[in-house]
Every structure is written in C-alpha cells, then in structure tokens.
Amino acid sequence: MAGLPHPRGHSLRPGSSKEDMVRRYVEDRLLLISRRHVKKFGNPSPGDEVTGFKSFGEVAKELDGLVNILWKSGTPCLQVPFLLKLASDFTQYVRSFPPSPRATFELLRKLDHCFASLLRGQDMDTNETLPGFENGLRSGMTTTDMVRCRSLVEQTRVLIVDVLSSGEEEEEEEEEEDDDESATEGDAPWDIDEERLHMDAARIYENTIVQLGERLGDPLGNDNKIDSSVVCSTND
What we know:
α1 (17-39) packs parallel to α3 (76-93), α3 (76-93) runs antiparallel to α4 (101-120) and α4 (101-120) packs parallel to α8. It contains 10 helices and no strands. By secondary structure, the protein is mainly α. The radius of gyration is 18 Å and the shape is globular.
C-alpha cells in the first residue's frame, strides 16, 4: 500500500456537486465491498458480475483506496463519518479470513494517522492545519464521534490479537516500495516478522489513543495496554 495522498487545499463546499459525487462514490464502493464479503460465503450465481473476496488482502486493497480518496478530499464532513464506518466494517471483515498481517497493519496505520490528525485538526507528521480546520476543531469529530471512535479502537486492539493468533496466515505478495511510501517520515514501518507480530498489535491506533485522551480528558493508554507477557507467550 502506498502512503496517504496530500489532501486538497480546501474542503469541498457543502452541498456542491463535487461533494455529492465523492459521497455517492464512497457509499457505492462500501456497498460493493459488503456484497463481495457476503459472496465469499456462498456459491456464485450464473452471470453474477460480483465475485466474493478470496483473501483479506483483497479487502484491504479496496478499503485502502477509499481511505486515500477520503483523505484527499480534505472534507471533514465526509472523512469523519465514512472513516468511522470503514473502521467498523474492517472489524467485521478481518475476522472472516486467515490472518493477513501486512495488509492488516498497513491499513490500520493509515486509519490511525487519519483519526489522530482529524482529532488534532493538524496532520500528525507535518503539523499542517488540515482543510476544514482553519477556524478550529468545530468541523471535526463531535463528542459522539469520539466516543464511537474510542469504542472502535478498544474493540480493534483486542480483536487483532485474537485474529493473529487464530491460525495459519494467508500468503501475502511482497511489495517493493520506497521508504517514503511504506512508512511516514520519522515512523518505523510495521515489523511483520513472526516474532514481532504481537508487539506490533500493541501499537494499533497508538496515536489515536493519545489524541482521544487529550480531547475526552480520560486517557485510554492504561485501559488499552496489551499485556505483552500474555500476548507473546503464544510464540513460546
């Protein structure tokens, strides 16, 4: 997966044809992804052009494309609800396939960057003010959004440990990427070696956790800390 694209200079105007076009496109793609997930569990019908996913890597590729589009839109009223929806759908899809560590961690790293940046109103890496946040954080997450995000973070961190420990991993294609694409500047790429998988799980949504703690006033770090002595015991 390539890195996140640079967002457009200004948010799309509310109610504009461009905003509506992006909204409809993302809605249609999320629906198609859901249909392909359902098709995974049944036999294809003759003439049906919708085929089921064969691996989580395929799912992650589709979700990754939508994350990129939403981030590039620079429009919080699209980014917040759709990224929360996408992160929720992720928790349903990832448990339906054999573990796919590379695809899983790379997608979660992107979502972490998006959520943490939206909570700050600034890009986590560059500290640039995000489009739509020129007048403060009012355009970002509401308290309800933040509570929902916190619930997703907690659920995902526990879920991924279970998924990674559930069985044989699916084969994943090796990708040749520049350092700038595979990891954000100053941040080490996800280490997917077998002995480090569970340690990487402890880093899931780490930036989002910090920002949620600052915004909601109740740090999540202690409640979400994964006991590495228990997690790593699976490798003994």
